[in-house]
Every structure is written in C-alpha cells, then in structure tokens.
User: Fold M20 family metallopeptidase from Paracoccus rhizosphaerae.
Amino acid sequence: MNDNTSTASRDTAISVALDHLASGRFETDLARRVAMPTISREAAHKPDLDKYMTDEMIPLYKKLGFDCRLLRHDAAPGPFLLATRIEDASRPTVLMYGHGDVVTGVPEMWSDGLSPFTMSERDSKWYGRGTADNKGQHSVNLAALEAVLAVRGKLGFNLKYLVEMGEEYGSPALDAICKEHAADLAADVLIASDGPRMSLDKPTIFLGARGGMNIHLQVDARDGYHHSGNWGGLLANPGVEMAHAIAALIGPTGECLLPELTPGRIPDNVRAALKDCVIETTEGDPDLDPWWGAPGLTQAERVYAWSTLEVMEIEVGNIQKPLYAIPPWAKARLQLRHPVGVDTDAVVPAVRRRLDEMGLQRVQIGPSPDASFPASRSNLDGPWVRFAIASIERTMGQPPVVLPNLGGSLPNAIFTNTLGLATIWVPHSYPGCRQHGADEHLPKTIVQEGLRIMAGLFWDLGET
Assistant:
C-alpha cells in the first residue's frame, strides 16, 4: 500500500478528483442538480423526485459501471436507487448512502441575488438548496469514485450505493426497504456523507447520530376568547399553564430536568474521544452561550454526548392582532435530541409524571405526527474506524476529528440495527451552512478537501 508506485497512483487519483473542481465540471454538475426542485414534502414535486433518479443519477452510475435498480414503497414520497458494482466477491463490500431530496425553498427568505434553485457563487461559496444537504455531498463522493476508476481502471472493492428521495420527509420507508432488500444491501461497512463537520476547517468523521423525537403539548381550556379585565383571575389561562409545563421540563439555563430523558452518564471512551474537541464558530454564525445547557459538561459533550430538550414552537393567542383577551388554548412542540442510552419508550410517561407532579394535569401530551429517529453509535475502537482515520491522515497530514455521533439525527440506526453494519460518516459540510434555512451554501474549500479525502479513502479501500 505504501510503495512508490502505489503512492504515485494514489496521488494521481486525488489529482484527477481535484480536476473536477478546477475544470468547472463539478460546479456544472452540482448546479444542474440544485436546479431540480426535489422537495419531498410537497406532492407537486413528486415528478422531480423521479426525474432526479432517471435523468441525473442512473445515467451517471451506469457510466461508472454500476447495475441500477429503482426500488419503490407506498410509504415513500419518491423512489430509491440501488446502484451496484461487484468486482470480486473476495474483496470488501462497501455500502454508501445519500439522498437527493431537499426541504422547501422559501425563496422569499433568501438574501438579495440568491435563489434556492439557481446555484450561484458568492465569496467562494456555492449557494442553493441542496448544496450542503445532500446533493453537494454525494456529488463529492461520485466525483471521487469516478477519479479512482479513471486511474486504476477498477475500484478494487465492491460498492453498493443506496440513494433515497425521502430523507427530508423522515425516511418513512428506508427501514422497510432495508429489511426487504437486506441480502442485496449486505456489506462490510457503511461509508456515507451527510451532516456537518465539527467546524469549517476540521475534517471530521462521526460514527452515528443522536436520536430525535418530538413532544407535542396542548392545553384546551374552553371555546372563545374572554376579556382579560372582566375574566382575568376567574378563568385559567392556557398560556400560563403551558409556560409552567415547559419550566417543569427545562431549567432556566436550558438543562433538561428529567433524568429519564438523558443517558445518565457519558461512557469513558466517548468522553475521551471528545476531550480535545472545541466548538468553534465562523463568520456568520451566532455567538455561543457558554452558560447554556447541562452544567458540568463541556460544550462538545452537550452536543455530542448528552440530551437537549428544546422548544421549537409555542402558539397562544395572536400576537400580530392582539385581542387583550384570555386565550382558549395553547400549543407547544418540544424536541428531544438524545444519545445512545435513553429509553425512548420511557420518555412520554416520564413527561406525564412530571406534569402531574406539578399539578398540570390539564396539559395534554398529543400524538406526534413527526417521524422520530433512534440514537445509534458504532464502536469507537472498531477496525473500520481505525482504517478511515489512517486514510484521512495520510491524505491530509493530520488525523480527522472523530465524533462518537452527530449532534443531529440521521437514519443511521437502520444501517447499524437492521443491516448490522459499522457506520462511518465523512461529512462535506459545516455547522454554518444554513441547511434547511435560507442561504444554504457549500464552501469550495470543503469541496476541495472532500474530493481529496474521498479519492484517497476509495483508493485505500481498493488496496486493503
């Protein structure tokens, strides 16, 4: 693996991958993909989900020597693509994953001169919906694969690539597809790219994801609004009841107050992995609030190793058109992000007990229409993790940041639990990318580093 010929060929593959960027081809390909409004939560764009597969993905995979199959499921908003290239059954088999769907564009919220489905460059960043999540990321991986094939003539390993068009819909059929086609998806390891790096300038791998579940609270007191002067002090105020319900669950500095919603302790190897991790911001990011969150933990531990319970929305009355009246109801949606070690079946009962203990029986916990993701984490000391670290260090001259899991949520548990795979995520984005919001963007520096990292990783996989 380390002889001069191998090194020269590896360097050539990385150079060919970088030429995708230097020649302008990468930008052209990504702009074409961004221009397709593949919004999975809007039924009007269902044809775009199919078109992304048939017009964009399948021709490219076939060009690279993959066999392609479209898989469908009634619960999914769009099709899945399984692209397979089997070179030698005795060689390792890698499963890769990405998604081509995006969230809604909200064009009215973007900065002047920027538009969600017209990619544009500003300050060496490409702006457009999907540049960071996830079209830009799987475009990096595909360009790197193409470079290795061009130089070596083969991958040197077997590759199965699963692309879905419903991740932003909550991946409602991914588990069913993986169970139904488990034999076709069998592999030795999952290598995928989604989510952000730890920071803009720090190549990162993470091994899983925190779980995510929503908790809907509601107080229904009566019909209609009632004058606050005539009825104040006589009628219970749902807004006040809701405020106390939230305060019973979350402390004044953001600490989750229910032990059942936390892992209880941070494993020693997780704490060791995060020992030198420092959360940093870049231009355009909000300033951090070091006083916020679970006490006694570092900021990295709060994001990657502990639970956070956040208020996403509160609705009571009409602040835009005030009636100066006691409202009839109040609603709130809370979101729990949690690592491995939380019993999700115990979450709602624990919330109910705390509300009852506080005399807040009228606050109801409603069913959540949102998809939830379980927490998952691969072995921090596993051989595939060591392999990925060594490969990236060989390319970049320094080891990557290794996170036990992403702070957000991904359908990683489907790959670890349903398919039984070790999972390694190599993200090509960063926390300030504005994914899911206005002005989503992808820095060209991350694309450049991502092409180097992935071409080197794919090359090394062919020699292991």
